[in-house]
Amino acid sequence: MQPSEFLYVAQQLLVDTEAGLRTSISRSYYSQFLALRDKLIAKGYSEPTDNQSVHAALRKELVSRGYRSVARKLDNLRVKRVDADYNLTKMIIRKDANMAYGLALEIEGLARKL
Amino acid sequence: MSYTRLQQTPFKVDSSSSWIAPEEKVLQVSSGSVIFGQAQMLTYELFVAGGDFAWPLVYRTDAVGGYRLELWVPAGQEPQADSAVINASVGNRIPAEVEVFAYANNIETVLYALEERARKTFPGVRDFSLSLESDPEGDKLKYVRVTVTLDADEKSVLSALSAFDDWLLEVLPDEKLLLVSVGVDFAADAAK
To answer: Max CA-CA distance within chain A?
Structure first.
């Protein structure tokens, strides 16, 4: 199972039901979070074992290794994902999901250089 | 006017409270304890509106060289536990010391810069707000969220977001880079 498979699912979920759009945003995020995490683990990164957020830790690690732009984009995608997963009173529309998918593609492109 | 320190430390405010700056910008915050990571005194004052009074909030140096946002109230007017300011301000949240970015020595400058840049960068801006947000998956992690509500297509928004990021990458040092998050909301009446 590869993280990129989540990105394919995200694309498939770009439909006009809000639950589908929210799930698409979430899959877009995880496709990149997991891919980046695996790349850094292959380069010696260890995920935190304490209460620290694995998401925050990964972004911080990206910054510390000089991948500042990737960290920013992942954070932008995270904001969308937090809204999609946790904020059910906020209206999520197709533009949101398209934007998240677009961000995931941008990150995927940058991640190839990692 | 002399001030006495509010006995409740740290002071708590909930996320619905508004802190109103002199120029009437409303800053929503989720904690009353804000640590600034650089060792220069901040002289900027915010005022919290509550009940019939407005009490100044001043930045003070804390023991570790950061800055703590404290609520000071005029002598003789210290609110009781059930007074208006407490009702208006104290929520159920556990107060956390919040580290906020500081690339300038004046928070007003920082916020102005964020707003000005966002308004210049994003297309179709309808609204703009700044808030302190909790990360639902981060222990005590909080960040400044810049929310831009706009009416534009996704492609131009992505391009603008990249441009805004480029600016943040330029002005924020590594340790502050992830303390500013950008949320893009599409205007509800344009949600087609």
So the answer is: 41
